[in-house]
Amino acid sequence: MKTFAATAFAATVLSASTASAGLITTPSKPVFDSIAANLALQVSEETFDAYEGFTASPATGTVGGVSWSASASGGLFSQGGVFSTNNPGTAIQFTFSEPVNALAGTFFATAIDFTPVPAILVAILSDGTTWANLTGPAEPYGNFVGFVSPNGATISSITLNFSPTTAYASVGSLWVGVVPAPGSVALLGAAALIGVRRRRH
Fold this sequence. Notes:
This protein is an alpha+beta fold. The longest helix has 19 residues, at 182-200. The strands form two sheets. Strands 1, 2, 3, 6, 7, 9, 10, 13 and 15 form a nine-stranded antiparallel sheet that branches. A six-stranded antiparallel sheet has the order 4-5-8-14-11-12, with no helix packed on it. The chain is built from three helices and 15 strands. Strand 9 and strand 10 (116-117) form a beta hairpin. It has a single domain, classed as Galactose-binding domain-like (Jelly Rolls). The chain is 22% helix and 44% strand.
């Protein structure tokens, strides 16, 4: 019932917002997933498990075929899958090699020992969309926020600022959603047809 409710709600939001030029913003991971699925977006997750210790700015990586670059004054520092700034009170900016149609993350603030601390997050997207909220412990999806474009508009960057200035901007996971390449769509369609044939036998 929870999945159905989230899907129904996402469909309602999607149909109501299709004519809007703005992005859909949600603090719910299931709703984000449902809207992205309704838009047939291919969503991939960056867990930052490959990063440990200090990394000079910019740090780079690839998720779902999209290259990202993270910049912060003083560099980046990672520990146990948490990607963070090396200096407190500095913003972290993610820039993408190609604009994405959906973007989400678990964003929170940490102390010098990576202990989560209460903070105010201000996230600013490349189109000026701004999200402000209180963040707390780094529970799964507890500090989640997602942005989805219902009309093909794209996102090329996100900047994360936290207050107080003694906090370190931190990211647990980052999700990007893009329109699949035509070849991928064809393969998915073929797989679906094969699945139908198998069920009929």
